[in-house]
Structure formats: structure tokens, C-alpha cells
Design brief:
By secondary structure, the chain is mainly alpha-helical. About 65% of the residues lie in helices and about 0% in strands.
């Protein structure tokens, strides 16, 4: 069975805590409790740093979404302004350049079925 990252960290912390509680002066696997504690602490520090980055990323994503919504509103105002401008209109080159279908290029929508 493969442990998740969180479970692995919990297991290592438990090993450290029980070692501290039961045999603090004994070394295992060529490591003292202090050496093992440094290794575990390094992992904990890195994970805390990642949590900070995750939080910052979420904050930046929220700011991006808010700025994008504002940008989309402004873009619509520009398109509507160009569409309503007597020199440009919804049949103009600029309106088509914005990626919209110009009025003279639109299909009527009328379809007639052929009888077979």
C-alpha cells in the first residue's frame, strides 16, 4: 500500500515523537534523534513554504479573474462603442477586425427544406 504525502509526513512525525518519548538517547540506522529531527524539520519547512506558495497562487488567481472580468467589460464597451459609431458601425472593417461577423456577412437564418 502506498501512502499519500500527508500520511507519509504524519508517519515520520510520529516516528520522531515516539523516538523522543521512549528512547531519546539511542541512535538507530546510524542516525541520532537530533539528526532525524533535522531531516523531518527540513521536510516540514519545505511543506510550509509550499503551502504559502499555494495560498499566494490562489490569491493571484482570484486577482487575475477579477482583472479579467473588468477587462472583458471594458472590451465590450469598446465593441459596443465602435458598433454604435456612425463612421464604423456593425458593418465596418473595425467591427470585423474585432472578430465579430459584419452585418453584410451574416446569413438570414431562413432555411427551406426541400421536398424529396
Amino acid at each position: 500500500m502506498r501512502l499519500s504525502l500527508a500520511d507519509t509526513v504524519k508517519r515520520n512525525v510520529r516516528i520522531r515523537d515516539e523516538w523522543q518519548r521512549l528512547r531519546p538517547h539511542k541512535s538507530f540506522g546510524g542516525l541520532t534523534l537530533e539528526q532525524f529531527n533535522e531531516i523531518v524539520q527540513k521536510v516540514m519547512d519545505i511543506m510550509a513554504g509550499l503551502e504559502t506558495l499555494d495560498t499566494r497562487r490562489l490569491e493571484q488567481c482570484a486577482l487575475r479573474d477579477e482583472a479579467l472580468a473588468h477587462c472583458n467589460e471594458a472590451a465590450l464597451r469598446v465593441v459596443w462603442g465602435a458598433r454604435g459609431d456612425p463612421e464604423e458601425g456593425d458593418d465596418g472593417e473595425l467591427y470585423g477586425g474585432f472578430g465579430y461577423v459584419r452585418k453584410n456577412k451574416r446569413k438570414s437564418g431562413l432555411t427551406r427544406r426541400r421536398k424529396t
